[in-house]
Write a structure and sequence with these properties.
Elements (H helix, E strand, L loop, with lengths): L14 H19 L4 H6 L12 H4 L9 H22 L1 H22 L12 H18 L4 H16 L5 H20 L6 H25 L5
Length: about 220
């Protein structure tokens, strides 16, 4: 069986969503169980790691603040909401790709918009989840569904990131733009015979743009 946008779906159960939630919860437990802050120190993202340890752009999305369990709880709840809606429509592989590319997009947004003097590092699934937000907007529009509640919810969440200290709104914005770009590829190719090819090529192109932006920004002279 195939979803509305061409992805293979074995059932309506959001298995990938559950798996991501399980990994995030397990990693959060390990953050507490393994001493010397080992998990955080080895897997969080800061801009200084952009070219030397680029995998942190993804791994940071599976870590959460130990000082605030709501950071984990709210992110996982939002992931569950969007995952239930998007995964059956996109298919498991495309949904996972959307999530991971959006996570990288969040890190790239942080890289592009945070001055070196303010780079304290970042953890959390928020960038990836804002990517799902961006994707949901395009999917809902394509399907002709109501948009008002989504726009209001997006405005509230973006404003929250700008107004509350300690929140990396730059990662939110980067994830949002990246998720929307991925969704534009997935919903814009229809269900023709060649659609899967164009979808994966489009996702590869979005990923390539993120790599180019990372290399460009990381190699640019630091601005004070």
């Amino acid at each position: 069986m195939r979803g509305a946008f061409g992805g293979a779906v074995a059932s309506d159960r959001p298995v990938v969503t559950w798996a991501i939630i399980a990994v995030c919860v397990a990693v959060y437990a390990l953050q507490w169980l393994i001493p010397n802050d080992f998990i955080f120190q080895n897997f969080y993202y800061a801009n200084g790691f952009a070219t030397t340890e680029p995998w942190r752009m993804v791994t940071a999305a599976f870590l959460h603040s130990q000082g605030n369990i709501l950071h984990l709880g709210l992110n996982m709840y939002t992931l569950w909401i969007f995952g239930q809606a998007l995964e059956p429509l996109l298919g498991r592989a495309r949904f996972l790709a959307l999530y991971l590319i959006s996570a990288v997009g969040g890190s790239v947004g942080y890289l592009l918009l945070v001055p070196p003097a303010l780079d304290g590092g970042v953890v959390g699934a928020s960038g990836a989840i804002f990517g799902l937000f961006g994707a949901m907007l395009l999917v809902q529009r394509r399907r002709g569904g109501p948009m008002t509640q989504l726009w209001v919810l997006l405005a509230i969440n973006l404003a929250f990131g700008f107004l509350v200290s300690g929140i990396a709104w730059q990662a939110h914005l980067g994830g949002l733009v990246t998720g929307a770009a991925c969704a534009a590829v997935l919903v814009g190719t229809g269900r023709t015979q060649r659609a899967p090819l164009w979808q994966w090529l489009g996702l590869a192109l979005v990923s390539a743009v993120l790599v180019i932006l990372t290399v460009w920004k990381a190699g640019a002279p630091a601005l004070s």
